UniProtKB/TrEMBL annotation:
Stretches of the chain forming a coiled coil according to its record: none
Ranges annotated as spanning the membrane: 25-49, 56-76, 115-135, 147-166, 172-190, 197-217, 277-293, 305-329
Subcellular location: Endoplasmic reticulum membrane
Entry's Gene Ontology cellular component terms: endoplasmic reticulum membrane
Pathway(s) of this molecule: Carbohydrate biosynthesis; gluconeogenesis
Family, similarity comment: Belongs to the glucose-6-phosphatase family.
Membrane topology according to the record: Multi-pass membrane protein
Protein name: Glucose-6-phosphatase 3
Transmembrane helix keyword on record: yes
Superkingdom of the source species: Eukaryota
InterPro entries attached to this UniProt entry: Glucose-6-phosphatase (IPR016275), PAP2/HPO (IPR000326)
Group of enzyme by EC: hydrolase
Length: 338
């Protein structure tokens, strides 16, 4: 693997050298490819256009990120920003690369979570959009356009992850391919209208399965915290190593979002039916509300408190989008008509 890793560093060096003037663009792309964006950005926009697609986005994001976590624990992938220092190959001549605020993630590197979750989530979106376009205008060219944009997005997210030294190219490719497969499978099995017990069972099942795998690997002698120490050691700035980038943050995010999805469907089965203008207002209000929810500062000590509050944060997300905001808009628009 040493040759594969060194070639990846060379590619990252070339990318930074030739496209550093587009730094803001790559940082924006990597932000949009963050699994967090699926919950706070993609979900509210898609839900108010198509409820089934919105639910699919949340469902696919949670399951694909959970699987990514398990794959990372088992594959022990390196990350470029720490491998440069750990490899010992660059003692005499350091590569001309730099780190960024999004570089210093603390989990293993393979496969890329950004690429995997982006591929899975956006497959649910573009397949739905492609089917809709084909049903309205049976044009193969027009209905294929979303898939072209989908490929371009995956390429852009992959390049951005290599550019910021978060992943090696093969990790991005592996994540993208796995994500596409998951997107195809999971988007066909959307749990819209399932009972609350189903979501509690899935969430608890994911939590217990992950903890069992973690405990089992530790019993076999594997140190699953090895990446956190390396991230802290080789990150350019200590504040770039964030607790919300740890594997257990991903786990609590996924479990919280699934329980929140079940609760939202339980409180208001089928969701609110709104005309087009109030729907646009719901998109705006939900985006504003989730922006502030996402920005809520959480205490990082003790870590148990952080993970508990992080879990609650993602339980709240579906409530805001599916129940609270559309409920309030429906209430006021109904009063206005009266």
């Amino acid at each position: 693997m040493e040759a594969v890793y060194s070639q990846g560093i060379s590619l990252a060096e070339a990318l930074q050298e030739r496209t550093m003037s587009h730094e803001k663009f790559w940082l924006t792309v990597t932000y949009l490819g963050d699994p967090n964006a699926a919950f706070f950005l993609i979900f509210p926009f898609t839900y108010f256009i198509s409820k089934r697609t919105g639910v699919a986005v949340l469902w696919v994001a949670a399951i694909s990120e959970w699987l990514n976590l398990v794959f990372k624990w088992m594959l022990f992938g390196e990350r470029p920003f720490w491998w440069i220092g750990e490899s010992g190959l660059y003692v005499n001549k350091q590569p001309k690369v730099q780190q960024f605020p999004s570089t210093c993630e603390t989990g293993p590197g393979s496969p890329s979570g950004h690429a995997m979750v982006t591929a899975a989530v956006w497959w649910a979106v573009v397949s739905s959009l492609g089917s809709f376009l084909y049903s309205r205008t049976p044009s193969v060219v027009l209905s294929s356009a979303p898939y072209l944009l989908y490929v371009l997005m995956l390429v852009a997210v992959g390049i951005s992850r290599v550019f910021i030294l978060a992943h090696f190219p093969h990790q991005v490719v592996a994540g993208s391919i796995t994500g596409i497969i998951l997107g195809i499978i999971l988007s066909r099995r959307v749990p819209a209208g399932r009972p609350l017990l189903f979501f509690f069972s899935v969430s608890i099942g994911l939590l217990l399965s992950a903890l069992s795998i973690h405990a089992g690997l530790q019993q076999l002698g594997f140190d699953l915290s090895w990446t956190i120490a390396l991230a802290k050691k080789w990150c350019s700035r200590a504040e770039w190593v964030r607790l919300d980038s740890t594997p257990f943050s991903s786990l609590t995010r996924d479990c919280g979002a699934l329980i929140g999805l079940g609760m939202a469907q339980y409180w208001k089965p089928g969701g609110w039916s709104l005309p087009r203008a109030p729907t646009a207002l719901c998109v705006a209000l939900s985006s504003i509300a989730l922006y502030h929810v996402n920005r809520l500062p959480l205490p990082v000590r003790p870590q148990g408190l952080f993970y508990s509050l992080y879990f609650v944060k993602f339980v709240i997300v579906p409530q805001v989008v599916m129940v609270l905001v559309p409920g309030l808009v429906h209430l006021f628009s109904h009063k206005k008509k009266d």
